[in-house]
Write a structure and sequence with these properties.
- Helix content is 32%, strand content 24%.
- The chain is of the alpha+beta class and 109 residues long.
- The chain folds into 2 domains: 32 residues, no CATH class; 63 residues, no CATH class.
- The two termini are 26 Å apart.
Length: 109
């Protein structure tokens, strides 16, 4: 299921009198995606963590960002940074994983 389809399925039941053919909920889903919304993804392996581009931001899964004990920023080359210093990605996952990616910069072409 695509992000658009998932958002449409969430939105449609909230608009039963307006969204007869699904066009309104699809339009809302498109608008939400066009402004940059992406469903946060869970990172559970060092390979997934290392695959994220530098500048990506992660938090402990299930922790609200303002209360996050571990906010992780990807440096690249297998290194991440948190409030305690620079670590290898695998160490960060052992200590705080799984992690939720809350920001992943657009890859430049």
């Amino acid at each position: 299921m695509t992000e658009r389809e998932e958002l449409t399925r969430i939105i449609a039941p909230e608009l039963p009198d307006v969204d007869i053919d699904g066009g309104v909920s699809r339009g809302i889903a498109d608008a939400v995606l066009n402004v940059g919304y992406r469903k946060p993804r869970t990172i559970t392996t060092a390979e997934e963590l290392n695959a994220l581009p530098p500048g990506s931001v992660l938090i402990q899964e299930g922790v609200r960002p303002k209360n996050a004990g571990a906010c992780i920023v990807i440096y690249g080359d297998g290194l991440v940074s948190d409030r305690f210093g620079i670590h290898y990605a695998a160490e960060a996952l052992e200590e705080w994983g799984p992690l939720t990616a809350i920001y992943v910069p657009e890859e430049q072409s």
